[in-house]
Amino acid sequence: MEEDGGSGSDSMEFVAGAETSAGAGTNAGRNRGVGAGTSVGGGGGTKLPHVLQKSFGEVQGILEHNRVLIQEISQNQETRDADGLSRNVALIRELNTNIARVVDLYGDMSGSFARAVAPRKTPQATSRALRGPAPPALEGSSSRAGVLSS
User: Fold this and answer.
1) How far apart, in whole angstroms, are the C-alpha atoms of residue 80 and residue 92?
2) Greater confidence, 121 or 62?
3) How far is Cα 70 from Cα 85, in angstroms, rounded to an integer?
4) Could you tell me which of 60, 89, 57 has the C-alpha nearest to residue 72?
């Protein structure tokens, strides 16, 4: 039943969100192109937060595990074995839970990314905001105050 080299889901129960030997921990080298070292805002100085990189790895691990689950579900469906078909119920529930976890992770990553690229307020701008708006300029005043025009 395990034509993919013995990586069926019978060997280890996958818990969404937990790092396992088949989960995000083993994918650290594979997801380097997704967000690792990517600059935000074109300035080149700010790196994407580590949480985004970790979340991408976790998503990758979950999606790879889902691929294995789908293969097993398909095999059980093809054999039409009563035990395999019964097992599909649990496998599909696990798949559904994993998909919900991926949706949550993408939502968390979206918020983290938005915070990472949001304009930062300088201390000067913050103190200005606390004092309120600057008073309106007087008419006729200019930087050349005291200079008479002829």
Assistant:
1) 16
2) 62
3) 13
4) 89
* Distance between CA atoms of residues 46 and 82, nearest Å: 55
Runs of H (alpha helix) within the chain: 50-79, 82-117, 123-131
| Orientation of helix 82-117 relative to helix 50-79, angle to 10° | 160
Q: Hey, is 11 helix, strand or coil?
A: coil
Summarised one tens digit per residue, pLDDT across range 102-136 is 999 999 889 888 887 888 776 666 666 667 666 66
Which residue type sits at 119?
A: P
21 within 8 A of 34, measured Cβ to Cβ: no
Domain boundaries, the chain: 35-118
Assessment of whether the complete model's pTM goes beyond 0.70: no
Please list, in sequence order, all residues whose beta carbon lies within 8 angstroms of the beta carbon of residue 7, skipping any fewer than 6 positions away. Answer: 22, 68
